[in-house]
Known about the structure:
- With 184 residues, this protein is an alpha+beta fold.
- It has one domain: PAS domain (Beta-Lactamase, 2-Layer Sandwich), CATH 3.30.450.20.
- 30% of the residues lie in helices and 27% in strands.
- It has six helices and eight strands, in the order ββαααββαααββββ.
- The protein has helices at 32-35, 38-55, 66-74, 96-101, 106-109, 123-136, and strands spanning 2-3, 6-7, 79-84, 91-94, 138-147, 153-165, 171-178, 180-183.
- The strands form two sheets. Strands 3, 4, 5, 6, 7 and 8 form a six-stranded antiparallel sheet that branches. A two-stranded antiparallel ribbon has the order 1-2.
- A hairpin with a 6-residue loop joins strand 3 and strand 4 (91-94).
- Helix 2 (38-55) packs across helix 3 (66-74).
Amino acid sequence: MEQGGVLLPARQSCVGYNASTYSAEGAMDDPNQVWSQPSVVEWSQLLLNSYRHWVGRDLMPRTGGPDEQAHALFMAPFVVVSHGAQEDPILNYGSHLALTLWETTWEQLLQTPSRLTAEPVNRAEREWMLERARVQGYVDNYRGVRISNRGRRFLIENAIVWSVIDQAGRRQGQAATFSRWTFL
């Protein structure tokens, strides 16, 4: 799984939705039980549309319909993770690669406060970056240390963090993508 500081495959979740919306049983065995759920397909569209809105380009090729795009995003060769717009946001999406990197299941991911993806010593810096992304719409070239559910620390580099908005421009959460990390 780990190759030259790069871990391959992870998973996703959706802002505005809660863990009870999903059936995580067997999700790791059959990714179709995750990415094909209507709420995940809808969230995937918000992620992709918001990324294009703020960054000015597509996160990935937008071929096929929403179902095909949700599948492609979930199985992408880069990490995509997001949280909702709550005061203490909960993770709501993780691509297959994100689930692998954070050593978690879909069900666990959907119950994880986003702040717990960083150790306490790194949370103030993480919050500062999230606030910048809220104000500016997105932040690129972000670098920071994160921690998996099992306590494995890793440095992410060249990450893009963006605000997730709906068609009316209302904030629904935030997301991040990156393809470079190093285990510490």
